[in-house]
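Worked problem 6 (solution included).
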Amino acid sequence: MAFHIRLKELRLQHNLTLRKLGEKAGVSYSILNSIENGRIIPSKDVALALAIALKIEDRETFIALAINPSQV
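Solution. The predicted structure is:
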């Protein structure tokens, strides 16, 4: 599964808007919107911040999906 699709699924499961998730993760709305729409790939630091904000237990897999999607 593509990172941006997984991110949107998780955000919706947590009932968060893009703005709310951005505030929790310290990521701007415009960057988050671009990530979720598949226009840009997040850095490892941004993926980690999103994993923390979304309380993802398996952060390594989530980050790997973001930065190296063909290997997950």
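Discussion: The radius of gyration is 11 Å.
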